[in-house]
Amino acid sequence: MDKICVTGGVALAGRVETSGAKNAALPAMVASLLTDETIELENVPPVRDILTTRRLLSEMGVQAEVREDGSATLNAAEAGGHEAPYELVKTMRASILVLGPLMARFGNARVSLPGGCAIGARPVNLHLMGLQKMGATCEIVHGYIQASSAGLRGAHILFDTVTVTGTENLMMAATMAKGETVLDNAACEPEVSDLAELLRRMGALIEGDGTRTIRIQGVPRLHSCRHRIIPDRIEAGTFAVAAAITHGDVLISNCAPEHMTALLLQLVSVGAEVDLRTGCVRVRGKDPIVSRDITTQPYPGFATDMQAQYMALMTQGDGTSVITETIFENRFMHALEMVRMGADIKIEGRRAIVRGGKPLSGANVLASDLRASASLILAGLVAHGDTVIDRVYHLDRGYHRIEDKLAALGAKIERIR
Ligand code: EPU
Predict the structure, then answer these.
(1) Is 255 among the residues known to form the active site?
(2) Average pLDDT of the chain?
(3) 0.90 exceeded by the pTM?
Protein backbone atom coordinates (compact mmCIF):
# COMPACT_ATOMS: atom_id res chain seq x y z
CA MET A 1 0.00 0.00 0.00
CA ASP A 2 1.25 3.50 -0.86
CA LYS A 3 2.41 5.94 1.77
CA ILE A 4 3.22 9.64 1.57
CA CYS A 5 6.36 11.01 3.16
CA VAL A 6 6.51 14.74 3.94
CA THR A 7 9.56 16.53 5.30
CA GLY A 8 8.54 19.76 6.96
CA GLY A 9 10.05 23.20 6.95
CA VAL A 10 9.51 24.69 3.49
CA ALA A 11 7.42 27.83 2.89
CA LEU A 12 5.34 26.95 -0.19
CA ALA A 13 5.54 29.36 -3.11
CA GLY A 14 4.24 29.47 -6.66
CA ARG A 15 1.07 28.70 -8.57
CA VAL A 16 -1.12 25.64 -8.30
CA GLU A 17 -4.11 24.66 -10.40
CA THR A 18 -7.33 23.34 -8.90
CA SER A 19 -9.05 20.25 -10.35
CA GLY A 20 -12.77 19.85 -10.91
CA ALA A 21 -14.94 19.18 -7.87
CA LYS A 22 -15.22 15.50 -7.00
CA ASN A 23 -18.49 16.08 -5.14
CA ALA A 24 -20.01 17.83 -8.17
CA ALA A 25 -18.68 15.33 -10.70
CA LEU A 26 -20.10 12.30 -8.83
CA PRO A 27 -23.78 13.32 -9.12
CA ALA A 28 -23.16 14.66 -12.63
CA MET A 29 -21.93 11.26 -13.83
CA VAL A 30 -24.83 9.50 -12.15
CA ALA A 31 -27.30 11.91 -13.78
CA SER A 32 -26.43 10.23 -17.09
CA LEU A 33 -28.80 7.43 -15.97
CA LEU A 34 -31.69 9.85 -16.51
CA THR A 35 -31.50 9.76 -20.31
CA ASP A 36 -30.74 7.44 -23.21
CA GLU A 37 -28.73 10.24 -24.86
CA THR A 38 -25.03 11.09 -24.37
CA ILE A 39 -23.76 13.34 -21.58
CA GLU A 40 -20.39 15.01 -22.10
CA LEU A 41 -18.62 16.36 -19.03
CA GLU A 42 -15.47 18.45 -18.68
CA ASN A 43 -13.25 19.13 -15.66
CA VAL A 44 -13.96 15.73 -14.06
CA PRO A 45 -11.08 14.97 -11.67
CA PRO A 46 -9.71 11.48 -12.41
CA VAL A 47 -9.64 10.51 -8.72
CA ARG A 48 -10.52 7.13 -7.21
CA ASP A 49 -14.17 7.93 -6.36
CA ILE A 50 -14.76 8.99 -9.95
CA LEU A 51 -13.26 5.75 -11.25
CA THR A 52 -15.42 3.80 -8.78
CA THR A 53 -18.48 5.64 -10.10
CA ARG A 54 -17.48 4.79 -13.65
CA ARG A 55 -17.24 1.14 -12.63
CA LEU A 56 -20.61 1.25 -10.88
CA LEU A 57 -22.26 2.80 -13.95
CA SER A 58 -20.49 0.36 -16.31
CA GLU A 59 -21.85 -2.55 -14.29
CA MET A 60 -25.32 -1.10 -14.86
CA GLY A 61 -24.71 -1.11 -18.61
CA VAL A 62 -23.76 2.57 -19.00
CA GLN A 63 -21.04 3.28 -21.58
CA ALA A 64 -18.81 5.40 -19.40
CA GLU A 65 -15.41 6.81 -20.21
CA VAL A 66 -13.34 9.15 -18.01
CA ARG A 67 -10.11 10.49 -19.47
CA GLU A 68 -6.96 11.81 -17.80
CA ASP A 69 -7.64 15.27 -19.33
CA GLY A 70 -10.85 15.52 -17.29
CA SER A 71 -13.32 14.84 -20.08
CA ALA A 72 -15.97 12.17 -19.63
CA THR A 73 -18.57 10.68 -21.94
CA LEU A 74 -21.53 8.74 -20.58
CA ASN A 75 -24.37 7.02 -22.38
CA ALA A 76 -27.04 5.05 -20.54
CA ALA A 77 -29.10 3.97 -23.59
CA GLU A 78 -28.39 0.31 -22.81
CA ALA A 79 -28.56 0.60 -18.99
CA GLY A 80 -30.20 -2.57 -17.79
CA GLY A 81 -28.95 -3.29 -14.29
CA HIS A 82 -30.56 -1.29 -11.51
CA GLU A 83 -28.36 -2.47 -8.67
CA ALA A 84 -25.56 -0.84 -6.69
CA PRO A 85 -23.80 -3.78 -5.00
CA TYR A 86 -22.39 -3.77 -1.47
CA GLU A 87 -18.81 -4.22 -2.76
CA LEU A 88 -18.91 -0.80 -4.43
CA VAL A 89 -21.16 1.05 -1.97
CA LYS A 90 -18.92 0.11 0.95
CA THR A 91 -15.97 1.80 -0.76
CA MET A 92 -17.96 4.86 -1.79
CA ARG A 93 -21.10 5.98 0.03
CA ALA A 94 -21.98 8.42 -2.75
CA SER A 95 -23.15 5.34 -4.71
CA ILE A 96 -26.49 6.04 -3.00
CA LEU A 97 -26.87 8.77 -5.64
CA VAL A 98 -27.97 6.19 -8.24
CA LEU A 99 -31.21 5.68 -6.31
CA GLY A 100 -32.94 8.87 -7.51
CA PRO A 101 -32.08 8.58 -11.22
CA LEU A 102 -32.90 4.84 -11.34
CA MET A 103 -36.30 5.51 -9.78
CA ALA A 104 -36.94 8.41 -12.14
CA ARG A 105 -36.16 6.54 -15.33
CA PHE A 106 -36.89 2.86 -14.56
CA GLY A 107 -39.14 2.90 -11.47
CA ASN A 108 -37.03 0.40 -9.58
CA ALA A 109 -33.66 0.22 -7.87
CA ARG A 110 -31.72 -2.04 -5.56
CA VAL A 111 -28.96 -0.22 -3.70
CA SER A 112 -26.88 -1.54 -0.82
CA LEU A 113 -27.35 0.38 2.43
CA PRO A 114 -24.06 2.21 3.03
CA GLY A 115 -23.78 1.68 6.80
CA GLY A 116 -21.62 3.84 9.08
CA CYS A 117 -18.17 5.12 8.23
CA ALA A 118 -15.11 6.71 9.80
CA ILE A 119 -16.78 10.11 10.26
CA GLY A 120 -20.22 9.16 11.57
CA ALA A 121 -23.35 7.03 11.27
CA ARG A 122 -24.47 8.76 8.06
CA PRO A 123 -27.99 7.37 7.67
CA VAL A 124 -29.95 7.73 4.40
CA ASN A 125 -33.43 7.95 5.95
CA LEU A 126 -34.09 11.34 4.32
CA HIS A 127 -33.36 9.99 0.83
CA LEU A 128 -35.93 7.25 1.46
CA MET A 129 -38.47 9.56 3.12
CA GLY A 130 -38.41 11.78 0.02
CA LEU A 131 -38.88 8.91 -2.42
CA GLN A 132 -41.75 7.56 -0.31
CA LYS A 133 -43.42 10.99 -0.41
CA MET A 134 -43.13 10.79 -4.18
CA GLY A 135 -45.07 7.53 -4.14
CA ALA A 136 -42.27 4.93 -4.11
CA THR A 137 -42.18 1.94 -1.83
CA CYS A 138 -38.83 1.40 -0.14
CA GLU A 139 -37.97 -1.72 1.85
CA ILE A 140 -34.72 -2.89 3.41
CA VAL A 141 -34.07 -6.50 2.42
CA HIS A 142 -30.80 -8.33 3.17
CA GLY A 143 -28.96 -5.02 3.66
CA TYR A 144 -30.27 -3.56 0.41
CA ILE A 145 -32.73 -0.75 -0.24
CA GLN A 146 -35.33 -2.10 -2.65
CA ALA A 147 -37.36 0.70 -4.13
CA SER A 148 -40.10 0.63 -6.73
CA SER A 149 -42.87 2.78 -8.06
CA ALA A 150 -45.35 2.79 -10.91
CA GLY A 151 -44.37 6.41 -11.61
CA LEU A 152 -43.08 9.04 -9.21
CA ARG A 153 -45.28 12.05 -8.53
CA GLY A 154 -44.32 15.51 -7.32
CA ALA A 155 -44.40 16.11 -3.57
CA HIS A 156 -43.54 18.69 -0.93
CA ILE A 157 -40.49 17.38 0.90
CA LEU A 158 -39.14 19.01 4.05
CA PHE A 159 -35.69 17.89 5.21
CA ASP A 160 -35.28 18.04 8.99
CA THR A 161 -31.49 18.03 8.49
CA VAL A 162 -29.66 19.64 5.59
CA THR A 163 -28.35 16.83 3.40
CA VAL A 164 -26.23 17.35 0.31
CA THR A 165 -26.58 14.00 -1.46
CA GLY A 166 -30.16 13.70 -0.16
CA THR A 167 -31.04 16.97 -1.91
CA GLU A 168 -29.22 15.83 -5.06
CA ASN A 169 -30.88 12.42 -5.09
CA LEU A 170 -34.39 13.81 -4.74
CA MET A 171 -33.75 16.62 -7.23
CA MET A 172 -32.79 13.97 -9.81
CA ALA A 173 -35.77 11.79 -8.86
CA ALA A 174 -38.12 14.77 -9.31
CA THR A 175 -36.93 15.77 -12.79
CA MET A 176 -39.33 13.34 -14.50
CA ALA A 177 -41.97 12.97 -11.77
CA LYS A 178 -45.54 13.95 -12.53
CA GLY A 179 -46.13 17.54 -11.38
CA GLU A 180 -44.19 19.80 -9.06
CA THR A 181 -41.75 18.80 -6.32
CA VAL A 182 -40.68 21.29 -3.67
CA LEU A 183 -37.54 20.54 -1.63
CA ASP A 184 -37.58 22.59 1.56
CA ASN A 185 -34.56 23.11 3.83
CA ALA A 186 -32.55 21.88 0.85
CA ALA A 187 -28.75 22.00 0.74
CA CYS A 188 -27.35 25.20 -0.87
CA GLU A 189 -23.88 23.80 -1.60
CA PRO A 190 -22.35 24.89 -4.95
CA GLU A 191 -22.24 21.20 -5.91
CA VAL A 192 -26.05 21.07 -5.67
CA SER A 193 -26.33 24.14 -7.92
CA ASP A 194 -23.87 22.61 -10.37
CA LEU A 195 -26.03 19.51 -10.60
CA ALA A 196 -29.14 21.68 -11.07
CA GLU A 197 -27.35 23.50 -13.91
CA LEU A 198 -26.47 20.19 -15.60
CA LEU A 199 -30.04 18.93 -15.21
CA ARG A 200 -31.41 22.16 -16.72
CA ARG A 201 -29.11 21.63 -19.68
CA MET A 202 -30.64 18.16 -19.99
CA GLY A 203 -34.10 19.78 -20.18
CA ALA A 204 -35.18 19.69 -16.52
CA LEU A 205 -37.21 22.56 -15.05
CA ILE A 206 -35.55 23.53 -11.78
CA GLU A 207 -35.45 26.81 -9.91
CA GLY A 208 -34.32 27.97 -6.49
CA ASP A 209 -31.09 25.93 -6.29
CA GLY A 210 -28.57 27.76 -4.13
CA THR A 211 -31.44 28.67 -1.75
CA ARG A 212 -33.21 26.57 0.89
CA THR A 213 -36.23 25.96 -1.39
CA ILE A 214 -35.82 24.19 -4.72
CA ARG A 215 -38.78 23.73 -7.10
CA ILE A 216 -38.76 21.11 -9.82
CA GLN A 217 -41.48 20.70 -12.47
CA GLY A 218 -41.41 17.18 -13.89
CA VAL A 219 -40.86 16.79 -17.64
CA PRO A 220 -41.49 13.63 -19.73
CA ARG A 221 -37.87 13.11 -20.74
CA LEU A 222 -34.36 14.49 -20.55
CA HIS A 223 -31.76 14.72 -23.31
CA SER A 224 -28.06 14.99 -24.12
CA CYS A 225 -25.90 17.92 -23.05
CA ARG A 226 -22.38 19.12 -22.39
CA HIS A 227 -21.41 20.53 -19.01
CA ARG A 228 -18.25 21.75 -17.26
CA ILE A 229 -17.88 20.77 -13.59
CA ILE A 230 -17.13 23.57 -11.11
CA PRO A 231 -13.67 23.77 -9.50
CA ASP A 232 -13.08 21.85 -6.27
CA ARG A 233 -13.48 24.35 -3.41
CA ILE A 234 -12.13 21.86 -0.86
CA GLU A 235 -8.99 21.09 -2.84
CA ALA A 236 -8.43 24.84 -3.39
CA GLY A 237 -9.11 25.42 0.31
CA THR A 238 -6.54 22.78 1.23
CA PHE A 239 -3.91 24.68 -0.82
CA ALA A 240 -4.98 27.94 0.82
CA VAL A 241 -4.37 26.44 4.27
CA ALA A 242 -1.06 24.99 3.02
CA ALA A 243 0.04 28.53 2.12
CA ALA A 244 -1.09 29.91 5.48
CA ILE A 245 0.43 27.18 7.66
CA THR A 246 3.85 27.30 5.95
CA HIS A 247 3.93 31.14 5.83
CA GLY A 248 4.11 30.69 2.10
CA ASP A 249 2.83 32.63 -0.92
CA VAL A 250 0.61 30.60 -3.23
CA LEU A 251 -1.58 31.57 -6.19
CA ILE A 252 -4.41 29.07 -6.49
CA SER A 253 -5.75 29.19 -10.03
CA ASN A 254 -8.78 27.70 -11.79
CA CYS A 255 -10.78 27.97 -8.58
CA ALA A 256 -14.03 29.70 -7.60
CA PRO A 257 -13.20 32.04 -4.68
CA GLU A 258 -16.92 32.90 -4.43
CA HIS A 259 -17.52 29.31 -3.21
CA MET A 260 -14.83 29.66 -0.51
CA THR A 261 -15.98 32.78 1.30
CA ALA A 262 -16.27 31.29 4.80
CA LEU A 263 -12.78 29.79 4.63
CA LEU A 264 -11.13 32.85 3.08
CA LEU A 265 -12.69 35.17 5.69
CA GLN A 266 -11.42 32.81 8.36
CA LEU A 267 -7.91 32.88 6.89
CA VAL A 268 -7.98 36.67 6.91
CA SER A 269 -9.07 36.63 10.55
CA VAL A 270 -6.14 34.38 11.49
CA GLY A 271 -3.79 36.89 9.88
CA ALA A 272 -3.18 35.58 6.36
CA GLU A 273 -3.30 37.93 3.37
CA VAL A 274 -5.88 36.92 0.81
CA ASP A 275 -6.12 38.56 -2.64
CA LEU A 276 -9.09 37.66 -4.78
CA ARG A 277 -9.03 37.68 -8.55
CA THR A 278 -11.42 36.19 -11.06
CA GLY A 279 -10.95 32.44 -10.94
CA CYS A 280 -7.96 32.62 -8.61
CA VAL A 281 -6.91 33.52 -5.13
CA ARG A 282 -3.49 34.38 -3.71
CA VAL A 283 -2.85 33.45 -0.10
CA ARG A 284 0.17 34.68 1.85
CA GLY A 285 0.75 33.23 5.27
CA LYS A 286 1.85 35.62 8.03
CA ASP A 287 3.38 35.34 11.46
CA PRO A 288 1.75 34.98 13.93
CA ILE A 289 -1.12 32.68 12.98
CA VAL A 290 -3.89 33.97 15.23
CA SER A 291 -5.93 31.29 16.99
CA ARG A 292 -9.63 31.64 16.12
CA ASP A 293 -12.65 29.41 16.78
CA ILE A 294 -14.79 27.88 14.05
CA THR A 295 -18.02 25.93 13.92
CA THR A 296 -18.78 23.80 10.88
CA GLN A 297 -22.11 24.54 9.18
CA PRO A 298 -23.91 23.69 5.96
CA TYR A 299 -22.97 26.03 3.08
CA PRO A 300 -22.42 28.97 3.10
CA GLY A 301 -20.98 28.30 6.57
CA PHE A 302 -17.55 26.84 7.28
CA ALA A 303 -17.39 23.43 5.51
CA THR A 304 -16.96 20.25 7.55
CA ASP A 305 -14.69 19.12 4.70
CA MET A 306 -12.22 21.87 5.71
CA GLN A 307 -12.38 21.24 9.46
CA ALA A 308 -9.43 18.82 9.64
CA GLN A 309 -7.19 21.08 7.55
CA TYR A 310 -8.13 24.08 9.70
CA MET A 311 -7.27 22.08 12.80
CA ALA A 312 -3.75 21.51 11.41
CA LEU A 313 -3.47 25.28 10.99
CA MET A 314 -4.66 25.95 14.54
CA THR A 315 -1.96 23.67 15.99
CA GLN A 316 0.36 26.49 14.89
CA GLY A 317 -1.85 29.28 16.29
CA ASP A 318 -0.70 31.80 18.89
CA GLY A 319 -3.29 30.79 21.51
CA THR A 320 -6.25 28.49 22.07
CA SER A 321 -9.03 27.83 19.57
CA VAL A 322 -12.20 25.78 19.77
CA ILE A 323 -13.30 23.83 16.72
CA THR A 324 -16.92 22.68 16.86
CA GLU A 325 -18.07 20.00 14.42
CA THR A 326 -21.85 20.10 13.95
CA ILE A 327 -22.29 18.05 10.76
CA PHE A 328 -20.72 14.67 11.59
CA GLU A 329 -20.53 13.21 15.09
CA ASN A 330 -17.18 11.47 14.74
CA ARG A 331 -14.98 13.63 12.57
CA PHE A 332 -11.98 14.19 14.84
CA MET A 333 -9.89 11.09 14.14
CA HIS A 334 -7.12 13.26 12.65
CA ALA A 335 -6.79 15.06 16.02
CA LEU A 336 -5.43 11.93 17.67
CA GLU A 337 -2.82 11.55 14.93
CA MET A 338 -1.84 15.23 15.26
CA VAL A 339 -1.41 14.66 19.01
CA ARG A 340 1.07 11.92 18.11
CA MET A 341 2.99 14.62 16.22
CA GLY A 342 3.12 16.79 19.35
CA ALA A 343 -0.05 18.87 18.98
CA ASP A 344 -2.02 19.82 22.08
CA ILE A 345 -5.65 18.94 21.25
CA LYS A 346 -8.36 17.87 23.65
CA ILE A 347 -11.63 16.43 22.37
CA GLU A 348 -14.80 17.16 24.35
CA GLY A 349 -17.73 15.65 22.47
CA ARG A 350 -18.23 17.72 19.36
CA ARG A 351 -15.59 20.27 20.33
CA ALA A 352 -11.85 20.13 19.87
CA ILE A 353 -9.79 22.49 21.99
CA VAL A 354 -6.54 23.23 20.23
CA ARG A 355 -3.72 24.90 22.13
CA GLY A 356 -1.45 26.32 19.48
CA GLY A 357 2.22 27.08 19.39
CA LYS A 358 3.47 23.55 20.01
CA PRO A 359 6.19 22.54 17.54
CA LEU A 360 5.17 19.41 15.62
CA SER A 361 7.56 16.57 15.02
CA GLY A 362 7.34 14.11 12.16
CA ALA A 363 5.83 10.71 12.96
CA ASN A 364 4.19 7.71 11.34
CA VAL A 365 0.48 8.54 11.16
CA LEU A 366 -2.64 6.82 9.89
CA ALA A 367 -5.18 8.52 7.64
CA SER A 368 -8.76 7.67 8.64
CA ASP A 369 -10.65 9.45 5.87
CA LEU A 370 -10.13 11.69 2.89
CA ARG A 371 -9.92 15.10 4.58
CA ALA A 372 -8.04 13.65 7.58
CA SER A 373 -5.34 12.55 5.14
CA ALA A 374 -5.04 16.06 3.74
CA SER A 375 -4.81 17.54 7.23
CA LEU A 376 -1.95 15.20 8.15
CA ILE A 377 -0.04 16.30 5.05
CA LEU A 378 -0.54 19.92 6.17
CA ALA A 379 0.72 19.09 9.65
CA GLY A 380 3.67 17.28 8.05
CA LEU A 381 4.55 20.41 6.05
CA VAL A 382 5.42 22.25 9.29
CA ALA A 383 6.69 19.34 11.39
CA HIS A 384 10.37 18.81 12.14
CA GLY A 385 11.62 15.78 10.24
CA ASP A 386 9.64 13.18 8.30
CA THR A 387 5.95 12.44 8.57
CA VAL A 388 4.88 9.18 6.92
CA ILE A 389 1.15 8.96 6.21
CA ASP A 390 -0.29 5.49 5.85
CA ARG A 391 -3.60 4.47 4.18
CA VAL A 392 -3.14 6.97 1.40
CA TYR A 393 -5.95 5.34 -0.56
CA HIS A 394 -8.28 7.68 1.34
CA LEU A 395 -6.40 10.62 -0.13
CA ASP A 396 -6.53 9.19 -3.63
CA ARG A 397 -10.33 9.05 -3.43
CA GLY A 398 -10.58 12.81 -3.73
CA TYR A 399 -7.30 14.57 -4.48
CA HIS A 400 -5.70 14.37 -7.92
CA ARG A 401 -1.91 14.12 -7.60
CA ILE A 402 -1.77 16.29 -4.50
CA GLU A 403 1.83 15.27 -3.85
CA ASP A 404 2.91 16.46 -7.33
CA LYS A 405 1.01 19.71 -6.90
CA LEU A 406 2.56 20.41 -3.49
CA ALA A 407 6.03 19.37 -4.70
CA ALA A 408 5.72 21.92 -7.52
CA LEU A 409 5.21 24.55 -4.79
CA GLY A 410 8.47 23.47 -3.16
CA ALA A 411 7.18 20.95 -0.62
CA LYS A 412 9.43 18.01 0.19
CA ILE A 413 6.86 15.30 -0.38
CA GLU A 414 6.94 11.95 -2.10
CA ARG A 415 4.84 8.87 -2.55
CA ILE A 416 6.41 5.64 -1.37
CA ARG A 417 5.06 2.67 -3.32
N1 EPU B 1 -28.19 12.78 7.39
C2 EPU B 1 -29.25 12.15 7.97
N3 EPU B 1 -30.11 11.46 7.17
C4 EPU B 1 -29.95 11.39 5.83
C5 EPU B 1 -28.85 12.04 5.22
C6 EPU B 1 -27.98 12.75 6.05
O7 EPU B 1 -29.43 12.20 9.19
O8 EPU B 1 -30.76 10.73 5.15
C9 EPU B 1 -27.23 13.53 8.24
C10 EPU B 1 -25.82 12.95 8.20
O11 EPU B 1 -25.68 11.86 9.09
C12 EPU B 1 -24.98 14.14 8.59
C13 EPU B 1 -25.75 15.32 7.98
O14 EPU B 1 -27.05 14.82 7.71
O15 EPU B 1 -24.96 14.27 9.98
C16 EPU B 1 -25.18 15.86 6.68
O17 EPU B 1 -24.88 14.78 5.80
P18 EPU B 1 -25.03 14.91 4.22
O19 EPU B 1 -26.11 14.02 3.76
O20 EPU B 1 -25.11 16.35 3.83
O21 EPU B 1 -23.65 14.31 3.73
P22 EPU B 1 -23.42 13.53 2.38
O23 EPU B 1 -24.37 14.06 1.37
O24 EPU B 1 -23.39 12.09 2.65
C25 EPU B 1 -21.72 15.20 1.31
C26 EPU B 1 -20.31 15.13 0.81
C27 EPU B 1 -19.36 14.99 2.00
C28 EPU B 1 -19.55 16.21 2.90
C29 EPU B 1 -21.02 16.32 3.33
C30 EPU B 1 -21.33 17.55 4.15
C31 EPU B 1 -20.58 14.10 -1.35
C32 EPU B 1 -20.39 12.92 -2.21
N33 EPU B 1 -20.19 13.98 -0.07
O34 EPU B 1 -21.96 13.98 2.01
O35 EPU B 1 -18.05 15.00 1.47
O36 EPU B 1 -18.75 16.09 4.04
O37 EPU B 1 -21.88 16.33 2.17
O38 EPU B 1 -20.99 18.70 3.46
O39 EPU B 1 -21.06 15.12 -1.80
C40 EPU B 1 -15.76 14.47 1.39
O41 EPU B 1 -15.73 14.91 0.22
O42 EPU B 1 -14.73 14.21 2.04
C43 EPU B 1 -17.05 14.27 2.05
C44 EPU B 1 -17.20 13.48 3.11
Answers:
(1) no
(2) 96
(3) yes
